[in-house]
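go over both lines:
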Amino acid sequence: MATTLGIELSDAGFLAAACETGEPHLLAVPDRNGSGEWPGFCHAEGGNLSFGRGAEDMWFVQPRRVAHNFWSRLAHEPSTLSASGKPVAFSELAYFFLRDFAERLATVAPNPRAVVLALPGNYLKDETTEDEKVGLLLGMAGELKLPLAGMIDMACAALCDSRAPGFNRSLPVIVVDLGLEGADLTLFTTEDELTRKDFLHLPECGISQLLKQLTGTMGNRFLRHTAFDILEDGRIEQTFFRQTKEFLLSEAPEYRFLINTATRAYEMPAKREQLALDAQFLVAPLVQGLQSLVRNSPHALEPCTVALTDRAARLPGLEARLHAAGFVRLLRLPAGAAAAGAARIGAERLPVPRDLAEVPLACSVPLSDARSLIATPWEARLQKQRDPATRLTPTHAILDGIGHPIGKSARFTIGLANATADLVLPDTFSVADECAVPLAFEGGRLWFADAAPGPEGATAPGFATRSAIEAGDRLMIRCGEASTEILFAHCPALRGTRLD
């Protein structure tokens, strides 16, 4: 069966996906040491160059022999690394990295029909940059004999991953992504196509800066806690860096740092709240950049949907800061979304041209490619009773004359029958994807939140703008031509029973 591969050219970590027919799936591409991580690092030792996880493991050990900016600075200019006494150009490092990755990819997905590359948004920011970087990539593909079928903006490809949650096509979408050397904010509209309209690159908001800062601040805490200085040896600092990265990517609420020496072991517990506090130096300008893009772009009609790549969503404190800034429509894209989206697009409609000069480059795609779009938009609005007097918490939700007990569980969901809702909407609402309204109990009150992306797409709906529901309030739900009204009532004598 013919396989199409999508390759996500993110210097934070190359990823690959395969698609034959139907759904794409990510591929595990182990390097020569068995690691599946491919961060954009290169280590030079004499005339030998190593890449990916192995090179990253030398970052704090031999910092002057490690480079991690050759993908962001893809050009013929010389890098700071030398091999056999000669400086190596950024483009050469990138080529050798891609060759290494392609060789290992061929061991798990040999002889693909086609390959589609998902490119960093910064490569396509202007005509001059695009010509240089795309030209270099075409040359690499030719040298490596890749059956290149297309190249696509990485954020655009990510929105075409069929594993991703749906978003409302009536609103602009901004994709937030983190690379090693900076963050990319890409704004799309969905009028006729999914089209890239605006772009902002934040050069000081990269994962390399984040990890170096977190390693330093956590290292200072470790010194105060244990009286042991991780800086006394580069290999110990490298071990501490690896643990810091594991803590960051795991999203665990707690972590235990452990350093073993010849004489004893040193330990320090840490909490994710500390990581979030330390990461504010990067979170704050990222949120400010997003606000600036929305304020200055003529295409950013509010409220925008903000789609976070898996890398961006792991940044501690970012979602809470976005919600506090008024961005309540958040989606979290799956890991490798750009690779999966590129593979699916290639499998469905991209042939391999005979001439590399004919390989298409896309910053927009038909809406049919973005299959995660909601088929029929729906909305839910809470209509408050105008009586200003304090009213009771409802015990029942009444639909079409039938009362449904709300109970006291943490969540009461109004939605479709296939979503195992507590209150099932009429069949006319089944034309909507993921039509569900979760209500939450907290502090003895029932709350409604505008979690527009739906239960799977909303990464933290509890932070959304919310209103307390009281007896007498009405919830209006609309989907295309269908609409209904749910009345909330307090019936103490009938608590826990059904009104028939």
